[in-house]
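Fold this sequence, please.
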Amino acid sequence: MDRDGLRGDCASCFGLCCVALPFARSADFALDKPAGRPCLHLAADHRCGIHDRLRQKGFTGCTVYDCFGAGQKVSQVTFGGRDWRGAPAEHAHAVFEVFPVVRQLHELLWYLTEALGLPAARPVHPELRRALERTEALTRGTPGELAALDVPAHRAEVNVLLLRTSELARAGVRGRGKDRRGADLMGARLKGADLRGANLRGACLIAADLTGADLRGADLIGADLRDTDLTDADLTGAFFLTQPQVTAARGGAGTRLPGSVTRPVHWTAGS
């Protein structure tokens, strides 16, 4: 599957993340906003009025968020380009209900696409391909079908394959790291740590010091990297790493990243 379709295209979306999702006043958001209510900074053309100043205005969470292309899928495919603005309340409600569902499915498509690109996972490629096709088909369901979908059950099925993929991919990493799945490593001092091939699925690494750490071939699916210091860390070959995770972390010019993600602007801007 072409990963370009799994990246947000705000120009083809009706500002769904700025309306459908709730905000809680915190270090990530400067205000409270319930689900279904437009953010006060959302303009009539569905663009953010403070897009170039989000971090300065206290909306760091917005700069980290990525819909994995669900916004344009729901706006242009599921609802055929019909805007929620000016539409009956039931239409807007359906749009906002379906968006989070498709977003979760698109995130699974991201992982499945990456898994199919890993040569070591070749033994499970047929199953991964079937799971990808099934997930893609689900994203094209009707609004009613999507609203009724048991997403946790589908995620659990896909996760079995992603776990197997992880085991196969990490098996060939020299000096394979320990299993730190779900570990609480908040604020941990891991400067220069050898984490090659480590299982860091779902690990809490908030504000951890990973400067100069070796994370080559590590599984980072679901790892919380908010404010994690990745300065000079090597994440070459790390897999199941997403752009939101990288954007939530801190790093610099010396941080080596997989080709699937890009270096955040604020890393070099120093903000």
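The chain has a mean pLDDT of 94. DSSP finds eight helices and no strands in the chain.
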